[in-house]
């Protein structure tokens, strides 16, 4: 049963999940996310303030949002994150999740537990120090892996996000799957997307979801499909005898758009009704006009009545080619 002011799109899909990027800054330089030299980061004043983000979360919570994922950039590089998480954790029943590269999270694990935040997506594209360094352009593999083990030991629900890239980490497809034998983690293989800040978009993809699944079946032929829930992006599979599971996110092929329940808000306050659009509304500028909560609700309801059916339509409607970095979008 939906609320009277439930945020619905023009295709009848309820929006229940907010992906909120709290910064565009990152301490890694992953090749699939940004150029080696990095990007020009926005000044702090150009970002949504913590107070503005807290207000947006509260209003959207009243419109049926029951899950918020904090992303970046890397969330832990922005000062004030834990105070913000403390504030929004007071919203009863709101599920708060984090996506992190795992470099800085170790210092905050106890605080996260005390707030009841127990779901973390950890970006880890390789289980080898040299390959990790090649992909991220930083030598932080041991820190990330030890923090992964700590999170699991402390009872967090951990998902490992791995972008599969030809010629860079193909051998890690099976290595990551093997990790699920003794660790209760969910490995999510993600198709590479064009959000690397280069402006170059591949027309085809070598490691698509079908090829990734075929590779997994060379060692695990008895993979058992797990029923996909509404709003999920990963096709998940059990591996007999393993504590964890694996999943494949067809982010480039866009096979899951039909049940998308996500609202995306970038660090600079751009509302994205689809990952592949180029931003449909400058919410930051609107908030700073002094609008009321009711006006904020009305503009959100209006935006989602013009939502593309899927990622292909959203990309077609863009004003230009994809040239943003994923760190400015929030994934």
From TrEMBL:
Instruction: List the keywords (alphabetical).
Output: 4Fe-4S, GTP-binding, Iron, Iron-sulfur, Lyase, Metal-binding, Molybdenum cofactor biosynthesis, Nucleotide-binding, S-adenosyl-L-methionine
What's a single GO MF annotation on this record? Answer: GTP 3',8'-cyclase activity
Task: Please list the residue ranges annotated as the Radical SAM core domain.
Answer: 10-232
Q: Which PROSITE patterns match?
A: MOAA_NIFB_PQQE (PS01305), RADICAL_SAM (PS51918)
What this protein needs as a cofactor is: [4Fe-4S] cluster
- Protein name per its UniProtKB record: GTP 3',8-cyclase
InterPro entries on file = Aldolase_TIM (IPR013785), Elp3/MiaA/NifB-like_rSAM (IPR006638), MoaA (IPR013483), MoaA-like (IPR040064), MoaA_NifB_PqqE_Fe-S-bd_CS (IPR000385), MoaA_twitch (IPR010505), MoCo_biosynth_MoaA/MoaC (IPR050105), rSAM (IPR007197)
Q: Which organism is it from?
A: Aquirufa regiilacus
Its EC number is 4.1.99.22
Q: Looking at its record, which EC class is this enzyme?
A: lyase
Query: What reaction gets catalysed by this protein?
Result: GTP + AH2 + S-adenosyl-L-methionine = (8S)-3',8-cyclo-7,8-dihydroguanosine 5'-triphosphate + 5'-deoxyadenosine + L-methionine + A + H(+)
Indicate yes or no for the key word Cell inner membrane. no
Matching entries from SMART domains are given as: Elp3
